[in-house]
Amino acid sequence: MRFSAGERPFSTYALFTFFVRGFLGQPQLEDALIGMDLVIIPAGVPRKPGMTRDDLFNINAGIVKTLCEAIAKCCPKAIANFISNPVNSTVPIAAEVFKSAGTYDPKRLLGVTMLNVVRANTFVAEVLGVDPRDVDVPVVGGHAGITILPLLSQIKPPCSFTPKEIEYLTDRIQNGGTEVVEAKAGAGSATLTMAYAAVKFADACLHALRGDAGIIECAYVASQVAELPFFASKVRLGRGGVEEILPLGPLNDSERESLEKAKKELAASIEKGISFIRKSVVDDSSSRK
User: Residues 57, 75, 96, 143: which is the catalytic one?
Assistant: First the structure.
């Protein structure tokens, strides 16, 4: 969309010129990345019926490694949004690649867990009979199975649920991706909802890059909130990426118990990503001998 000065449609709006360029394949990867401020990485194979996020690991890990090497070379100051599954492992992979390149800035590396929040807001709104846009459910931990921890005790506006409702909501939020994969019966995964979540999170990052204040979203980032190298929680975004990592806040007994289970699962996923890079370094060294 392009408007000249004489074609301004609304006098109260600033003028923008939008340029869209296409790039194809690895030979044009560096051209696509040069000068970028925000890079969004959805690359990878989708889940299929019976496939866990761990099943995706070996394929998607290699793709992420290649893309991160190019980012480190062409736009090391860019904010990178990672969607490629399994996010619990691919974000640690990205961190290790950036560390090796000497470009690692934990504030600029974000795993996109917005889809968990979108699902949580939607499912809770269905139970309450309200508009999902009026609901805010913090979802912390990670982006797979039991590592996805909706803090139903901290919902805004405040409300309470029966134990049966909590069990139902938690299960749907944690297994929403599997539900979609099975419903499509091999024809795809949660592409539309993930696209919506990706755009929603990217828009938040762009507003933060512009200097807008008060941009708070959940994201999977380098954090010590739960004594783990990476953890998803609410963060305040700014021009440099993550400006502040917000505390988890008060948890009820059930949420504390779920958090402990999530941390064990998440720790293993993080180590899996780090081990992949370490093995890749050894393999690369051996191949050059």
Answer: 143
